[in-house]
Design brief:
With 277 residues, this protein is α/β, with parallel strands linked by helices. The protein has a domain at 92-160. It has ten helices and twelve strands. Strands 6-7-8-3-9-10 form a six-stranded mixed beta sheet, with helices on both faces. Strand 11 (239-245) and strand 12 (251-257) form a beta hairpin. The longest helix is centred in the middle third of the chain and has 15 residues, at 144-158. The radius of gyration is 20 Å and the shape is globular.
């Protein structure tokens, strides 16, 4: 039996006396692409923050390659884990090329210069995210979507074995949403990424974790997790789920939402509106 690359055991996170995550347990095999879904406030970002050591749980453990993440020194952890966040940093007064080059830092000695091989790696990463033509442009002058693509290029040159992505496509148009997530899947590393687009998660993920109110409600393949019952219970929406064949013949769940509210829903909205008057 192959040991899991990531193992989360009985994880609990409390902030300001409020339970954010409750008894979270799951494991991820090496090379898996795992989607993290749930409504706003479900705890997705908080779970990822625990994984990249921004927040400290009150109990439980997180193991990477069977080692507790607290046992990694800062440099070793940066060589192992990269994170692309939904909050785009704005403090860089640097050219795009230099921001991407920051990803090489964990692999360099202090004060060492960038080698020709490093420059090639940076160029390749910029090409993958479609920003080669803007490498000398100021990072601050870019659009939100372009800044996010720079952050993904930086993660690529960091060469992690685990890539954490917190809704990285939130600032991107549809084309780059698909391309960036497909790129992450093609990198050959383990990926745990939170999604808003459930159809995109179904198409790309090997497995999906469903969070709601800080609890893990489901953990399985898209075919097993993406059901009409789950969508109704967790997201409060009416939808039909059908299986469609991908280009390689794999059966992928496709969600078709029902946008027309029922008479009960309409009456409830009207009632709430009157209460606010």
């Amino acid at each position: 039996m192959v040991a899991a690359q990531v193992s989360v055991n009985n994880l609990n996170l409390v902030i300001n006396n409020k339970h954010i995550l409750s008894d979270i347990c799951f494991s991820v095999a090496s090379g898996q692409f795992v989607g993290l879904i749930g409504p706003n406030g479900a705890g997705k970002s908080s779970l990822l923050r625990c994984l990249y050591r921004f927040q400290t749980p009150v109990s439980g453990s997180i193991l990477i390659d069977q080692t507790d993440i607290n046992q990694f020194d800062r440099l070793s952890y940066a060589r192992t884990v990269a994170a692309v966040l939904q909050e785009i940093p704005s403090q860089f007064n640097l050219a795009v090329f230099d921001v991407v080059a920051m990803g090489i830092t964990p692999h360099k000695r202090l004060f060492s210069s960038i080698s020709l091989r490093d420059r090639q790696s940076i160029q390749e990463a910029l090409q993958k995210v479609g920003l080669t033509h803007k490498q000398q442009q100021s990072y601050e002058s870019l659009s939100g979507g372009e800044k996010q693509r720079v952050m993904i290029a930086r993660a690529i040159v960091q060469r992690p074995s685990l890539l954490l992505m917190d809704e990285p496509t939130s600032h991107l148009d549809v084309k780059y949403q698909i391309e960036i997530m497909a790129l992450a899947k093609s990198l050959g590393v383990t990926v745990i990424a939170s999604f808003h687009d459930l159809n995109l998660a179904s198409a790309l993920c090997d497995s999906i974790l469903v969070l709601d109110q800080g609890e893990l409600l489901a953990d399985g393949t898209p075919q097993n997790v993406m059901t009409t019952e789950m969508l109704s219970t967790v997201f409060g929406v009416n939808a039909e789920v059908s299986l469609q064949s991908s280009s390689n013949g794999e059966q992928i769940p496709y969600i078709r939402y029902q946008y027309q509210l029922s008479e009960t829903d309409l009456n409830l909205q009207v009632s709430r509106g009157r209460e606010c008057e």
